[in-house]
């Protein structure tokens, strides 16, 4: 292979590595600006999965005004932490109202989410802060959404709190989906060593 071909291949590889790290940095910024909600069903039975969706509706209805006027993820997290007992009580009451006796726990966590595409954009895989509601044993399929910027609490996704580069990644997620898979794969590998 000629010296010119080697230089060209090296330059291409270097460009790809720089682009990967730049893209990873934007994805990390997105993860730092987003707050999610996560609801775990007791089991995969039809009844428990239906209950999970009713709990979701109850939590979102009670939480409707909690994030009004919030301008940052940290402010959203603080308000949700304050509202957590009320949200947990609404979830628990929903369980009782539907004839179940399962206990609902609610907590803020930092957990791994896979790449997720919504109609309005794609969120990269990685560790996000989340408000998690666990119904009973929490061994069933889950439901989750983005609380901040508001996506679950309103019909349209409001990403005004994100930077232009973060919005570009989210809004143009389809063209970045392959890169998300690479980032997701690398993060899964790295999280293996964190255990």
Walk me through what this model shows.
The protein is an alpha+beta fold and 195 residues long. It has one domain (10-194). It has helices spanning 3-33, 46-62, 73-97, 164-171, 173-194; strands at 35-40, 104-113, 116-118, 121-123, 126-135, 142-148. The chain has a 4-stranded mixed β-sheet with strand order 2-5-1-6. It has a two-stranded antiparallel sheet with strand order 3-4. Helix 2 (46-62) packs across helix 3 (73-97). It is elongated. Mean pLDDT is 75; it is low at 21-26, 154-162 and 173-179.
Summarize the structure.
The chain is an alpha+beta fold. It contains 5 helices and 6 strands.
Protein traits:
single chain, two-stranded antiparallel sheet, alpha+beta, 195 residues, 20% strand, 5 helices, 6 strands, 4-stranded mixed sheet
Counting DSSP E segments of at least 2 residues, the number of strands comes to 6
User: Major β-sheet, in short?
Assistant: 4 strands, mixed
Radius of gyration, in angstroms, nearest whole number: 20 Å
Number of domains: 1
Structural class: alpha+beta
Sheet with the most strands: spatial strand order? 2-5-1-6
What's the helix count? 5
Please tell me what the overall shape is.
Answer: elongated
- List unreliable stretches of 5+ residues: 21-26, 154-162, 173-179
Cα distance spanning the termini: 43 Å
Helix content: 40-55%
Fold topology:
Layout: H1 3-33, E1 35-40, H2 46-62, H3 73-97, E2 104-113, E3 116-118, E4 121-123, E5 126-135, E6 142-148, H4 164-171, H5 173-194
Parallel strand pairs: 1-5
Antiparallel strand pairs: 1-6, 2-5, 3-4
Helix pairs in contact: 2-3
């Amino acid at each position: 292979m000629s010296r010119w071909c080697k230089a060209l291949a090296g330059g291409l590889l270097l460009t790809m590595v720089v682009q990967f790290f730049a893209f990873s940095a934007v994805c990390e910024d997105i993860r730092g600006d987003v707050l999610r909600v996560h609801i775990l069903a007791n089991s995969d039975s039809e009844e428990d999965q239906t209950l999970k969706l009713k709990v979701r509706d109850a939590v979102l209805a009670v939480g409707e005004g909690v994030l009004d006027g919030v301008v940052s993820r940290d402010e959203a997290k603080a308000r949700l932490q304050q509202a957590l007992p009320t949200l947990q009580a609404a979830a628990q009451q929903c369980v009782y109202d539907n004839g179940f006796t399962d206990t609902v726990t609610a907590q803020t966590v930092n957990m791994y989410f896979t790449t997720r595409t919504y109609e309005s954009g794609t969120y990269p895989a990685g560790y996000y802060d989340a408000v998690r509601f666990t119904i009973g044993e929490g061994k069933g399929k889950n439901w989750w959404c983005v609380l901040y910027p508001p996506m679950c609490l309103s019909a349209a996704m409001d990403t005004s709190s994100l930077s232009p580069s973060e919005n570009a990644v989210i809004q143009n997620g389809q063209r970045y989906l392959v890169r998300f898979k690479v980032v997701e794969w690398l993060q899964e590998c790295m999280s293996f060593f964190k255990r």
